[in-house]
Amino acid sequence: MSHKQAARIAPSILSADFARLGEEVKNVVLAGADWVHFDVMDNHYVPNLTFGPMICSALRPHTEAPIDVHLMVEPVDSLVEPFAKAGANLISFHPEASRHIDRTLSLIRDQGCKAGLVFNPAVGLEWMDHVMDKLDLVLIMSVNPGFGGQKFIPHALEKLRQARQKIDRWVEEGGQPISLEVDGGVNVQNIGAIRAAGADAFVAGSAIFNQPDYKAVIDAMRQEIAKVDSQA
Length: 232
Ligand code: DX5
Ligand code: ZN
Description:
CATH superfamily: Aldolase class I
Number of strands: 8
Strand content: 15-25%
Shape: globular
Distance between the termini: 11 Å
Order of helices and strands: EHEHEHEHEHEHEHEHH
CATH class: Alpha Beta
CATH topology: TIM Barrel
Strand order of the largest sheet: 1-8-7-6-5-4-3-2
Bound molecules: D-xylitol-5-phosphate, zinc ion
Largest sheet: 8 strands, parallel
């Protein structure tokens, strides 16, 4: 049995207008976003540089929606507490970027945030197996991290199905719920197939922020998801 949760749309503000970030966050939440996806890049783990805890804390008063922090940084641990203090609700990181994955997950939860592991296209899901009890979120990358606006890598669908199976087995054995999120190249055309593969949280940057009407895009995404759910 599938333990897929209600669908959550998490617009990535990487593609928003950085000169008007507060307003962009407000607008996208008014347009129906469930989470605000916050891509942290350090020009070390990934070849790009974005924003840190100070920007997160500046955005915090602009919305009550959960802030979903995606750390593309190395090392990881030193940024956990600053992001928790800055108002992050979920914090996820790439396992290869942490020396001690179990410790990093505990650190995130000890700070009162939900903890997630992120899997690059060429990284295997085995990392999950030993830390299932410490996971609130698993994020499958459907592009190589570093930039918005890339094309969805189709192999991510198979990986989502495998992650779905692992999570469903875990929940059936009495484990806590774990969200299954996807990130990269998600749009109205492919979101149905992604839902069918097992995702319950959907990051979308350019597909939303490159359009004038955010609500129209989010509504269309929900419709595609509803079509798949009604067939299940
Ligand atoms: C890529 C980021 C993504 C990205 C998604 O490294 O993690 O969150 O912003 O952007 P789109 O939806 O444009 O692929
Ligand atoms: Zn991201």
